[in-house]
Design goal:
The chain is mainly beta. The chain contains no helices and 30 strands. 0% of the residues lie in helices and 51% in strands. The strands form nine sheets. Strands 3, 4, 6, 7 and 8 form a five-stranded antiparallel β-sheet that branches. Strands 9-10-11-12 form a four-stranded antiparallel β-sheet, with no helix packed on it. Strand 6 and strand 7 form a beta hairpin. About 4% of the residues have low confidence.
Length: 322
């Protein structure tokens, strides 16, 4: 038999029909192993002990090959290999470009057709320290470039990491983060035209991996980890270089997903007291009110690494659940 009924969805889920092994279904035990190869690299097997089982696998890529092996373990491990099936999903493009080196944990900001990346960590650096180099990625030419500027050291000696990078017109505001396990308490402005930095007001924003969005002249900073009874959030006045604080009543939640749509901040999920939450709250930055919306996430979820806004839609990728 050969694998039939293979489909792949735009989000990269491959499914296939049950393998037809009629005539030997009574020779138990039978093990069917599907071998999955993604973009020419062997990735995963999925095994079924039921002869009529179909299966699927999440691949999220453009070229997938699948081969099934039928094993009759009672009869000297007889193995039958099906014909390899190759499926190409044209809706997903794999770019033939690479980062300058192995890089992770990079704050980034997008201005026009350019993405600015800085504060990368990786094995290229001593003891996985953070690089203060600034890289750009051009969405038109799909190329990387290294700028003639570096992120200033914190207090003159410490590399910064896990900070927020917020685009405002042609500037990028660098806020929060840590340096050598110490919370960074200053605010920087990077001019993408002159490639120069300006040091602004000092403020302890609660450490690493904060969400930060620019709305109507203000940058709203929401920490993802905190230790107060309420979430203490921060509002930075870009014109006057001042901070004010406001509280979000989330009962010690942390690692929420946060997105900005128009004048509102949407705060989704989170974790607190051994509970994963699925609720969605909206903070109106004009009325300065927090409301719980009448709908929620499918599952209680925290640690959502990617929250993307497209028009009025919010996309959540990944996360941790119970």
């Amino acid at each position: 038999p050969d694998i039939t009924g293979i489909t792949i969805t735009p989000d990269g889920v491959v499914r296939w029909d049950p393998l037809d092994i009629s005539g030997i279904e009574n020779y138990s035990p039978i093990t069917i192993t599907y071998e999955i190869t993604i973009n020419g690299i062997y990735k995963k097997t999925t095994t079924s002990n039921s002869y009529n089982a179909s299966s699927y696998i999440q691949v999220g890529t453009n070229t997938v090959s699948i081969r099934a092996k039928v094993q009759l373990t009672q009869y000297n491990d007889y193995t039958y290999d099906t014909t390899e099936y190759v499926y190409t999903n044209s809706s997903i493009e794999v770019l033939d470009i690479k980062l300058p080196y192995l890089m992770g944990g990079m704050p980034y900001a997008v201005i026009g057709d350019t993405m600015y990346l800085m504060g990368a960590r990786g094995p290229e650096f001593s003891n996985y320290q953070t690089s203060m180099d600034i890289y750009t990625f051009d969405f038109v030419t799909k190329t990387f470039n290294t700028l003639d500027a570096t992120v200033p050291l914190y207090n003159g000696y410490g590399n910064r990491n896990s900070f927020s990078a917020v685009p405002v017109n042609t500037d990028i505001y660098i806020m929060g983060g840590t340096s050598n396990s110490v919370t960074v308490n200053d605010t920087l402005k990077f001019d993408t035209i002159s490639h120069t930095f300006t040091t602004l007001l000092k403020k302890n924003l609660g450490g690493a991996y904060n969400y930060a969005y620019y709305i109507n002249g203000y940058i709203y900073v929401i920490p993802t980890v905190f230790y107060d009874d309420l979430v203490t959030a921060y509002k930075y006045d870009v014109l006057n270089n001042t901070y004010t604080t406001f509280n979000l009543e989330l009962l010690k939640h942390h690692n929420m997903g946060v997105a900005a749509v128009d004048n509102d901040l949407y705060i989704m999920g989170g974790y607190a007291s051994s509970t994963y939450y699925a609720h969605i709250k909206k903070y109106d930055t004009v009325a300065e009110t927090l409301t719980t919306l009448p709908y929620s996430l499918k599952l209680g979820t925290s640690e959502m690494p990617n929250v993307v806004v497209r028009g009025s839609d919010i996309y959540l990728f990944g996360g941790t659940t119970y």
